[in-house]
Amino acid sequence: MRCKLFGREGDSCLTGFASRKGDVSIYLVASFPGRDELLAKLGKHKTGKGCLYLRKLGDVDLKVLEQLVAGSVAERKRLHA
């Protein structure tokens, strides 16, 4: 996705995933409508400002995870359209 941020233009992924030593990191936008409600239903996780950390996919509701990623992608597209 092509976007502008801080007066600069460049390419950015809509969302990102990284397998790390102890968890899986999912990069989301920091805030979007319904985010907090979805996180409350997700299951065992940790969050950073724009990151979601999961130890095991079996610890979370995959349908809720799908909604979180879709909501984040929709917000990023809305912000950078």
Model description:
This protein is an alpha+beta fold and 81 residues long. It has one domain. The protein has helices spanning 35-42, 62-79; strands spanning 2-5, 8-11, 16-19, 24-27, 46-47, 51-54. The strands form two sheets. A four-stranded antiparallel β-sheet has the order 3-4-6-5, with no helix packed on it. The chain has a two-stranded antiparallel ribbon with strand order 1-2. The longest helix is centred in the last third of the chain and has 18 residues, at 62-79. The chain is globular, with a radius of gyration of 13 Å. 9% of the residues are buried.
Question: Nearest-angstrom radius of gyration?
Answer: 13 Å
**Mean pLDDT level:** 86
What's the structural domain tally? 1
Helix content: 25-40%
What amount of the residues lies in strands? Answer: 25-35%
Could you state the order of secondary-structure elements as H and E? EEEEHEEH
Unreliable segments (pLDDT under 50, ≥5 consecutive)?
A: none
Number of helices: 2
- What's the end-to-end separation, in Å? 9 Å
Main sheet: strands, sense, barrel: 4 strands, antiparallel
What sort of overall outline do the alpha carbons produce when their principal axes are compared?
Answer: globular
Helix vs. strand class: alpha+beta
Number of strands: 6
- Major beta sheet, strand line-up: 3-4-6-5
